[in-house]
Request: fold
Amino acid sequence: MNNLELYTEDNKFNYAAYLLADENGISMKVAKYSGVDKVDLIENAEFGYCSLIKATENILNKLEIENITKTKITSTVRKEKRLVDPTALREAVINAIIHNDYSNGIPPVFEIFFDRYVITSSGGLPQELSQEEFFEGISAPRNKELMRVFKDVRLVEQLGSGVQRILKVYDRRIFKFSPNFLRVSFPIKNVGENIGENIFKPNNTQKKIISLIEQNKHITQAEISEQLNKTVRTIERNMKKIQEAKVIVRLGSDTSGYWDIVK
Reply:
């Protein structure tokens, strides 16, 4: 305990020890939304009230499951791509947890949207570290006790390496800085396409249509029209766009078939 600097001057456990304890009051969440904003929450998984190391591993496992592999098959080649680069995502998660300012009671937040993964940590950059120094990999740990323990259990390889690993794959623009928060937004990349191209972003009507189909896969376009107070022509036009984006498919006949949500 002394070697890991987990005691205060009067031989009581400090806050780093509290965060690493088997039981504590810190909870971190992985929130998943059906669209590109926070309107339609479809899952809110909670990881916490335990050692920060255990919580970190649980969050990494959850995001690993969500970060599926997409495949594109052409006449000459089969391309496979994760939604987000797994190494960059892992580094961003660990950085957010280690460098978060827990003194204000705000834990890191992990969010999955239709078009991006967002990781937000509290505290912003330390005062002694500029943005340019941050991108150069210079490390100024806010929680040096946590950094050491995470390094001892091999969740961290070396100081300052995380940002450099992320920048090997993504542009600096994915980082957003403010006095109180640091946010990393990983755009979801379509297989064989450049980031930002051909990403389907449903409008409000389309999101409501998808939600109704999730509730009742046998719902008709006429019923959707009535529930949303939109014309049948408007519903048909929006559903065509959703189908073209391969978000939903029609299985079976027009009369006895049903809708299936693909992604």
